[in-house]
Amino acid sequence: MMGSCTEAIYFAAISGHLRSRMATDAPTLAAKLGTTTHISPLLQKARRLGLGQRELEILAVQRGCNYYHDGSPLPPMLVSSEQFSNAELAIALLNPALRYDPQTIRLGAAMLSAPGNLPEELARLSLLERCQAVVRYVAEAGGKFEPQNHFWINLLNLLPSVASPKSSVVPHPTRFVAMTGMTRRGIETIIQWIRPGPVAPVNG
């Protein structure tokens, strides 16, 4: 059970790695972008499954966003991909109705290109959830770093041309990639888009 003492310890360990959270009355991403915060059907579905903003972030780590995992023990999987798909998770994390937090956006950007995600489904969800501007911003960044990746090309073709979100609000595109300065060949810069990798082992 999620309310058990053991899992409470697990959640505390994970949340220690995630950024300190702002008060519950903090502005939403929509408010920071200067738009109206809508009632999100997707976030309502997430809440019915017991997934608030912190739980959505933890679920992204459980689903393979190891770049954001500090090695602390992970609790049992919160919900299955059948209950809440990776596409839904990505759009939920990028949702303007969530409390504003750049780390949440970065996790959403990572989940956007999770293996198996279909551009058509992402485009459909982004329309329903009013996050086309943020999704397009991430996709454009992905296209710049991975110009040969047809996933980004197809997704961009399905999204409408909209005004870019305020640069002071969304993370800089370089925050969506990992840069390696040392390789077997010596010192060189290798840039990799951050996306889910192998799922980390869980406890319980």
Topology:
Blueprint: H1 5-17, H2 29-33, H3 41-48, H4 53-62, H5 86-93, H6 102-112, H7 119-128, H8 132-145, H9 150-158, E1 177-183, E2 186-193
Antiparallel strand pairs: 1-2
Helix pairs in contact: 4-5, 4-6, 5-6, 5-7, 7-9, 8-9
Give the low-confidence spans: 1-23
Q: Strands of the largest sheet, in order across it?
A: 1-2
Rounded to the nearest angstrom, the distance between the terminal CA atoms is: 10 Å
Domain module tally? 1
Strand composition percent: 5-15%
* SS element count, helices: 9
| Topology, number of strands | 2
Structural class: mainly alpha
Radius of gyration: 17 Å
Q: What oligomeric arrangement do these chains adopt? A: single chain
How helical, in percent, are the residues? 40-55%
- Run of helices and strands: HHHHHHHHHEE
Profile the largest sheet.
2 strands, antiparallel
The overall pLDDT average reads: 86
State the shape. globular
Account of the protein in words:
Helix content is 43%, strand content 7%. The chain is mainly alpha-helical. The protein has one domain. A hairpin with a 2-residue loop joins strand 1 (177-183) and strand 2 (186-193). Residues 1-23 have low confidence and may be disordered.
